[in-house]
Amino acid sequence: MNIVFMGTPDFAVPCLEALIENNHNVCAVFSQPDKPVGRKQLLLPTPVKACALKNSIAVYQPKTLKNAEATDIISNCNPDVIIVVAYGKILPMDILSAAKYGCINVHASLLPKYRGAAPIQQAVLNGDRETGVTVMQMDEGLDTGDILLDEKTKIDINETSAQLFDRLSVIGAQALIKCLDKLEKGEIIPVKQSSVGESYAGKITKELSLINWRASAFEVHNKIRGLQTWPCAVTVINGKTVKIHKSILSDKTGNKPGAVVDNKNVLTVCCGDGKCVDILELQQQGKKRMSASAFLNGNTIEISTVLGE
Questions:
Q1: Higher-confidence residue: 55 or 40?
Q2: How far does CA 185 lie from the centroid of its chain?
Q3: How does pLDDT run across 248-274, given as a tens digit for each residue?
Q4: Stretch 24-46: mean pLDDT
Q5: Is the sign of the CA dihedral 251, 255, 259, 261 positive or negative?
Q6: Which residues lie below 8 Å from residue 94, measured CB to CB, with a gap of 6+?
Q7: Rounded Cα–Cα distance for residues 4 and 168 (Å)
Q8: CA–CA separation, 10 and 99 (whole Å)
């Protein structure tokens, strides 16, 4: 197929690579404008742009799609389909209808659940045991188009959003290639999304980071793994803010939310339901991520110390 690809972050790269590897003709790539990254604020190409340039594909980074320039570029490519994966811009109607098969989006949830910007993190934050990828025919709504194909996968109880992100990016690429093959053969029957179970996953912000130790152990554990690797769950230990990177559910119990129950090798903390979490990895301000045992070797955390105060 003759394809225009639109995407920006790491999640979209496996889809672009799969299109190339399966001999589809990607004639143009659209990506968000480059942004300064890190403490030094270096202007780096988006992951999708870097992949496209590596494969000698023309890259376009318009600030807006609401003018004739973007439409002309797409029209000159004469695409059979436009593939959109985590691009980050709303597509106007003239682009949605600019290809034979329209615009197809790879979305990291089982629609209509978790429409919006952060479906992967939201699934982990909510403690879901299953998620997946939906390949969808785009319309003018937000992730509301007809479902062309979906693939399900289980979520492990200790899987972080970062780990799930990596897995779903690969599942999404495989689903996309399968969908395009079926589309060419006329084997796809679009299915309208149900209004049952629809939900929205808004952007993740730093305001979500603070751990509420009055929540259940399961909810605290989900926050820790759901906000990994950004912005990370945080708490206060002896007056200092600390990022919590990794935890597991503990078999220990306690009486006071936030109280330290065990300080040998791991930091076991009581939650609001009397159950506990074992903190395995954390990070002090200005220091590198470390194991709980290394942290405890350099910090005195007494039993009954209350976190979050």
A1: 55
A2: 31
A3: 999 999 999 999 999 998 999 999 999
A4: 90
A5: negative
A6: 71
A7: 22
A8: 25
pLDDT in tens, 95-134: 999 999 999 999 999 999 999 999 999 999 999 999 999 9
Give the Cα separation of 89 and 70 in Å (integer): 13
Q: Kindly report the three-state secondary structure assignment for every residue of the chain.
A: CEEEEEECCHHHHHHHHHHHHCCCEEEEEECCCCEEECCCCEEECCHHHHHHHHCCCCEECCCCCCCHHHHHHHHHHCCCEEEEECCCCCCCHHHHCCCCCCEEEEECCCCCCCEECCHHHHHHHCCCCEEEEEEEECCCCCCCCCEEEEEEEECCCCCCHHHHHHHHHHHHHHHHHHHHHHHHCCCCCCECCCCCCCCEECCCCHHHCECCCCCCHHHHHHHHHHCCCCCCEEEEECCEEEEEEEEEEEEEECCCCCEEEECCCCEEEECCCCEEEEEEEEEECCCCCEEHHHHHHHCCCCCCCECCC
Percentage of the chain beyond pLDDT 90 is 93
Whether 289 has a pLDDT exceeding 90, the answer reads: yes
Q: What is the pLDDT of residues 195-216, one digit of tens each?
A: 899 999 999 999 999 999 999 9
Q: Which two tokens stand for residue 290?
A: 């470390």
